[in-house]
Amino acid sequence: MHEPINWKDSYYYSKDRIVLTNEQVPVPGIRVLAHHLMTSAIPALESHYHENCFEFTIIFEGVFTFQAQGKNYTAAGSDIFVAYPNEVHSTNQVPLSHGEFYWLQLDVSSAENLLFLNRSAADSLIRCLHNLKRHIVKVRDNDILPLLKTAFELSISKESPYLIASYLVLFFNRLIGLSTTEHPLSRGIYQALNYIYDNIQADISLETLARYSHLSIPQFKVRFKQEVGISPRSFINLQKIEAAKPLLLEGMSKTEVALQLGFNTSSYFSAVFKRYTTFSPSEYIKRHQNS
Fold first, then answer.
1. From which residue to which does any coiled coil extend (predicted)?
2. What is the pTM (predicted TM-score) of this model?
């Protein structure tokens, strides 16, 4: 087993992945502000930590698994995963599925001038962040995610660090305020989820799910993504892939698994499987046979 590493991101810029460091975001305390848009899965994150640094992973789209303190956490759209300073975390060998997220690292080794705040305000912010005492914060709120996105876009445009910091201070304070808010599922979406779980082997239509939710199809798609954090079709595919894994390891062929789980062809099943896991079905089987 590998020892956790003290991970430090470096500046990176591509169409789908942008990592800005304090050199590009000259705001005291900001170590990294980054964005990643993934059209397919990428390998799992190994165990690592960030010295004296909070890390906030803000999910805009998709479902991701994280591990901290030996416990797994699932984060979906509009969820924020919090890794505390020096806390070892990973994705527990689970690939990062396709989706979109931002991440933000805040160095709290010194409160002096943190985010351009005075000492009293900086001390209060650090204390409140430590007191979150949870790893998943659900923020189904229309204003908090745009705050971070705006701070990122201002950083790309090399706007005033003071302006960028003002958005980040608002983001952190909204995060703290929303950390105690619960977001129960509506009855209609709860019924739709149960239908998906109970009929995972069927070809599940959005029309059927919308009917169970007593909504039109457009209303259902919007409500589902708001409450679950991912589109209905992506959620269904994820559940089918999870159901496929044990069937493949039990010796069923990919054609048999595809037919059992309602995929039209084995090639389409293989493409979806790789999109969500980074492995083809045969690669997945070999990997587990050798582990």
1. none
2. 0.80
